Amino acid sequence: MRVFLILLGKELRQFFLSPLAYVVILLFMLINGVSFYASISALTRSTSAHNIVTWMFRTPWFYLSYFAVFPLITMRLLAEERKLGTLETMMTAPVRASQLVLSKYAAAVIFYIVLWLPSLANLYLFQYVTAGAADLPRGPLIGSYGIVLLMGLLYLAMGLFASSLSRNQIVAAILALTLILLHYLVGFVAVHLSSARMLDLSEILNYIASVEHLSLFTSGLVDTRPVVYYISLAAFFLFLTHQVIEFRRWKT
Amino acid sequence: MPASPATPRPIRRTSIATNVALQTLAGLMLLGVVNYLSFRHFRRWDLTRDRQFTLSPQSQNFLQSLRGRTEVVAVFPKGSDEEKEIRALLEEYKRAARPRVVVDFLDLNREPSRRLELEKKFALNITQHGLIVSKQAAPPKDRTAANAAAPTAPTAPTAPTNAANATSLPAPAAPADAPPARRTRFVPAEQIFTYDTDGPQRRLIEFRGEDLLTSAVIGVNQKSPPVVYVLTGNIGNLPAARAPGGQTITAENVLWDMAAKQDAHVRTLGLTGLAEIPADAAALVSIRPGLDFTQREIEMIEQWWTARRGAGLLFLLDPEADLPRLGGFLARYGVRPRPDRVLKVLTTAQGTRKELEVPAAFNPLSPVTAPLGGTAVTFPEQSQTLRLEEDSRVLRAGALEVTPLVLARPDYWGETRPEDPAPRRDPADTGEPDPLVLAASVERGGQQDQRLSAASSRLIAVGNAALIDPDRETLRVNPVAYDFVSSSLSWLLNREELIGIASRRRPGYNLDLAPGHTAKVLGLCLGLLPAAVLTLLLAVWSARRA
To answer: Taking Cα atoms as reference points, which of B315, B316, B289, B268 lies closest to residue B159?
Structure first.
């Protein structure tokens, strides 16, 4: 545990003492701000079936920022270590591959959570400024941030895995983006284009479709199936990353 | 002589690679098992404020008591908002009734061959979106007897309404070697979803999926649907709203629609010249009787109501009508309509005026109105009060239980001299301390314990005839009033499982911001907060450079 905490501290320092991290936060914040403003405009123009929280997670701005952020967070995690040759050095130290993977992943998750805090602040600042003009429904609020966290857990694990496969950060980022978009689009296409002929298949497609999960959770319906799905798949990608590092250790 | 160094053991890369591959395979299998278990055994939490995704206890209880296998096919375009709503609802149905409700989906445009297959299976033409609910009847022991007693196809309701009714679809006549008959219902999408089309985008404002689906499931699981007769002959002029197609819609049409949604058959009945009430009548409804019933008609109704177990009577009374015989009949069972008009005096700059629309509350202790408790309803136009005898010797001897259903707000009173232009309260007027009862129920032969309850005879009198009149502009009926009359009808038909399954109203969200608020919010979200991060960025950058 001590080794893990030391590694986590090192990773967090690398995140938060790097100008790139603040550039990412700044860009994410600006895009989220525009998304929030688009939601306010939509609700000011006409009556909508969706509340302000649900709106925030349904604008095109949300998707624009959402999928781009994971490669930015994860691309350097292992690829940079390999490029600089520090991964081999670390492998000779009394550090397990699992500790290395988990510490990098935990740091990425913490950074990801920090990334989302300003959007939550936007909602409460809005409430404060307008003296509660908009209703902030608890259910959709919990559901929306819950699903964003769950999907983030998976996509960060995918990004970390992609980073373990290449020593080039750009390649790692492209690979991560491809994996993430493939996962999202497979669910999207499956739900919209599949035939309902095989009912069980249709249910399975809904089980993996992130677009459905986003829709349900942002409406305030929390289901254990996506929770298990994202956490287990994230664990599987972490396991794969661990295997890649272990394999390299013995290969050299 | 120093010992020669031990020869290092070579790394067995092949076995390590095999080991890694096996571990990966095991991990993949574990992932599959975990997700399979999660797919089969899951929980859902509905965190919405008005529990939009949760089935009512009534539906849940009914589904748990269901026998056999009921099939539901949702015919909606894949990925549409309607399909998402229906999918979430059917998910709850499956959970509550698994494995007794089997759910399937059909997209008419994308699956033409499957559509043909289902058309053949259910013996119907699938041309519009909606829900198909079907159940294969249990195979009879004796085929000949089965054919003789094969359920006749329920006739599609022919209500004089432009609103589409839940349609009972005819099953084909069963030949000797045919499989057992199938009971099928179709609930059209336009009944399930009500949209507001006034704004730039159409918006869902009401979702009736649960009550319509539960009604249809009840319908296919019962041998014969109950028949509701709407009394004609002494009916007053029903205010009519004109639909765009030129047809008129009255409260009677609304009632037809309501009964059809409960999978009951509706017919009209004139009492003149009739020897007795038809034996298949489960309930009689009289909307706005303008003329009094004859003595013989009252006797016929009374005889039917007292002799038939499970008989239901519903009266929507017009305060302006003089109905001594009907009033006498109701008084014998503990409900006496008063000759008054409920109002309140409003003082405005133009002087005083009588406010006749009465805000009222539902009795939370009655099984009819308990599920509506907490919602307010406004009785439109004119209302009269009902005096109840809740605890008299006669009622006890007749095993009658009289219960108030709707009470007017205490600041209203019943004016007994409506012709008096001066709105003042006389001693003869009704009001506090007497409660102003606007609707009441009578149950004859009921049991406190629901488990022992056989079908009891029931009656509901409402001191307002305009409650379910459609609005002349929007053609809509006040949704709370609709739910109240619908619950009343369910109770009269001894269908408690349908009481309280109200439509789900979808709130509309909009923002009415004060001038300057948007700019201030924009300044904070896109100005101040990013500026703070930019300051941090510059600090980190300069620190690293230093």
So the answer is: B268
What is the nearest CA distance from A85 to chain B, expressed in angstroms? 22
Residues in chain B within 8 Å Cβ distance of A26: 530, 533-534, 537
Give the pLDDT band of residue B161 (cuts 50, 70, 90).
very low
Contact B76, B105 (CB under 8 A): yes
Contact B53 A221 (CB under 8 A): yes
User: Interface pTM (ipTM) of the complex?
Assistant: 0.87
Task: Check whether residue B388 and residue B317 sit in a common domain.
Answer: yes
Give the span between the Cα atoms of B50 and A91, in whole angstroms. Answer: 55
Distance CA A232, CA A229 (A): 5
What are the pLDDT digits (tens) for A139-196?
A: 899 999 999 999 999 999 999 999 999 889 999 999 999 999 988 887 777 666 655 4
**A-chain residues near B95 (CB < 8 A):** none
Domain layout of chain A by residue ranges? 2-251
B180 lies in the same domain as B320: no
Q: Confirm whether B23 is domain-assigned.
A: no
Q: Indicate the pTM of the whole model.
A: 0.68
Q: State which of A3-17, A177-191, B11-25 shows the largest mean pLDDT.
A: A3-17
Give B220's contacts (C-beta < 8 A, 6+ positions apart).
B70, B133, B134, B135, B183, B184, B185
CA distance A220 to chain B (A): 5
Q: Are the Cβ atoms of A33 and B526 closer than 8 angstroms?
A: yes
- Kindly tell me if the per-residue pLDDT of B206 is higher than 70: yes
Size of interface A-B (CB pairs under 8 A): 201
CATH number at residue B482: 3.40.50.880
Q: Do A19 and B13 touch (CB under 8 A)?
A: no
